[in-house]
């Protein structure tokens, strides 16, 4: 069925280095791709999103790229800081069912 | 802007009782609200989608008689877990969007409700 695959499941990077999380989706009609950050015991927080008519979007240390041909999109965090440690979820619209499908999540740890 | 609240944040109840969780959009009108369930270290699982003034659409495998959803106004949706059992213990999260459906609009999430059924 329709799904969103996310890799890696866990990621540990040195403070100050960059982190990259990748997702692929199967519904070629998907047109909206949000990224969420979830801290322990809290609800997901939208950190950045991209729509299908754009290839890249940047907001300070966070950027997202979208390759519609290959059906994959990535989250890039530069100059990582301890407060970036959290679980990150990618998501994509499932147009036929009018809902968003979430990836399985990436647990990001920033080493001091 | 786009703040969603949930109440209560935590609830502990006895098996067989019913529990109501409220989800409110504080600074915008939510045409559509979503209810998710999340198990430890797992992703979000959509339970149902509700549009204001109409019946909720439940995902396959979700018992509509057990998880009652009401979206009575553009700022409030409630999830009632009826006759709760220990296996219903979970983290329940709601989200809200300003357009009908999730195709092109952002979902803003609430802080979640931790339900523990003894």
Summarize the structure in words.
- The complex is a heterodimer of chains A (112) and B (118).
- By secondary structure, chain A is mainly β.
- Chain A is 0% helix and 58% strand.
- Chain A has strands at residues 4-7, 10-14, 19-25, 32-38, 45-51, 56-59, 62-67, 72-77, 86-94, 99-102, 106-111.
- Chain A starts with a strand and ends with a strand.
- The mean pLDDT of chain A is 93.
- By secondary structure, chain B is mainly beta.
- Chain B is 0% helix and 51% strand.
- Chain B has no helices and eleven strands.
- In chain B, the strands form two sheets. In chain B, strands 2, 4, 5, 6, 9, 10 and 11 form a seven-stranded mixed sheet that branches. Chain B has a four-stranded antiparallel sheet with strand order 1-3-8-7, with no helix packed on it.
- The A-B interface holds A 31-32, 34, 36, 41-46, 49, 51, 89, 93, 95, 98-100, 102-105 and B 4, 6, 34, 42-44, 46, 49, 93, 101-112, 114.
């Amino acid at each position: 069925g329709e799904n969103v695959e996310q890799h890696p499941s866990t990621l540990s990077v040195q403070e100050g280095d960059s982190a990259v999380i990748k997702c692929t989706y199967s519904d070629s009609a998907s047109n909206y791709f949000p990224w969420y950050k979830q801290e322990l015991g809290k609800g997901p927080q939208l950190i950045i999103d991209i729509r299908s008519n754009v290839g890249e979007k940047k907001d300070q240390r966070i950027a997202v790229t979208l390759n519609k041909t290959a059906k994959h999109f990535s989250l890039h965090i530069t100059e990582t800081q301890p407060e970036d440690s959290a679980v990150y979820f990618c998501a994509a619209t499932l147009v036929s069912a009018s809902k968003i499908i979430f990836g399985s999540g990436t647990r990001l740890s920033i080493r001091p | 802007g786009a703040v969603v609240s949930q109440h209560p944040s935590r609830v502990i109840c006895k098996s067989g009782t019913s529990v109501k969780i409220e989800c409110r959009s504080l600074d915008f009108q939510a045409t559509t609200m979503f209810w998710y369930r999340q198990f430890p270290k797992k992703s979000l699982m959509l339970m149902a989608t509700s549009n204001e003034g109409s019946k909720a659409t439940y995902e396959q495998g979700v018992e509509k008689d057990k998880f009652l959803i009401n979206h009575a106004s553009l700022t409030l949706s409630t999830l009632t877990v009826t006759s709760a059992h220990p296996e219903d213990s979970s983290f329940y999260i709601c989200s809200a969007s300003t357009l009908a459906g999730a195709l092109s609009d952002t979902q803003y999430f609430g802080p979640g409700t931790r339900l523990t059924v003894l």
